[in-house]
Amino acid sequence: MIFGRSERGKPPVEPVTLKILVAGGFGVGKTTLVGAVSEIRPLRTEEVLTEAGRPIDDISGVEGKHTTTVAMDFGRITLREDLVLYLFGTPGQDRFWFLWDELATGALGAVVLADTRRLEDCFAAVDYFERRSIPFVVGVNCFEDAARYPAEAVRQALDLDPGVPVVLGDARDRESVKEVLIHVVQHAMARAAAAREAAVTT
């Protein structure tokens, strides 16, 4: 099926659209993830890193990074003919966090990208979604020069609840990113079903 059209002889399918946030620390791969999986040309709001920003933009571990997202990244992926995800990548630096509340409005769930070389950089994103009860999955972006750890070790390091999925992957690889997004949708739907069941029994 082509988006917005159906095969001849079949009734058109109106897809369900879901909003997913992609969050995490500075330089963790959020823009890369959205670009790797989006079926449209991603909308990016990047600016070049300058010497003036060096004191506040810590590029330790990501010395090759020359640009940064200042508002959001936006992409779209059709998982099935009846299910479309809109992806919103958040800016990583704390001076742009005021944008997160706007981006989070109406979100089904989120991906918190983590880099094991700078794991502490994703604490703020984990805390943000926990406080707002937004379902999230931690996606460990396995950089080539980063140490590899089992998912359970990452869970313990981030002090995550047992029900929060931790998925190892590569933000550059489309199929790897799709797996992470599928985990987000499944986790969010399971959370919603559990909440409905709890409401019925109380």
Describe the 3D structure.
29% of the residues lie in helices and 26% in strands. A seven-stranded mixed β-sheet has the order 2-3-4-1-5-6-7, with helices on both faces. It starts with 15 loop residues before the first strand and ends with a helix. The chain has 202 residues and is α/β, with parallel strands linked by helices.
Keywords:
seven-stranded mixed sheet; 29% helix; 202 residues; single chain; alpha/beta
Please describe the topology of this protein.
Layout: E1 16-24, H1 30-37, E2 43-48, E3 67-80, E4 83-89, H2 100-104, E5 109-114, H3 123-131, E6 136-141, H4 151-158, E7 166-169, H5 174-201
Parallel strand pairs: 1-4, 1-5, 5-6, 6-7
Antiparallel strand pairs: 2-3, 3-4
The arrangement of helices and strands along the chain is: EHEEEHEHEHEH
Enumerate the strands of the largest sheet in spatial order, edge to edge or round the barrel: 2-3-4-1-5-6-7
Tell me, rounded to a whole number, the average pLDDT: 84
Alpha-beta classification? alpha/beta
Q: Roughly how many Å is the radius of gyration?
A: 18 Å
Q: What is the CA-CA span between the terminal residues?
A: 43 Å
Could you tell me the strand content as a percent range?
Answer: 25-35%
- Backbone shape: globular
Could you list the spans in which at least 5 consecutive residues all have pLDDT below 50? none
Number of contiguous helices = 5
Please summarize the sheet with the most strands.
7 strands, mixed
> Residue share in helices?
25-40%
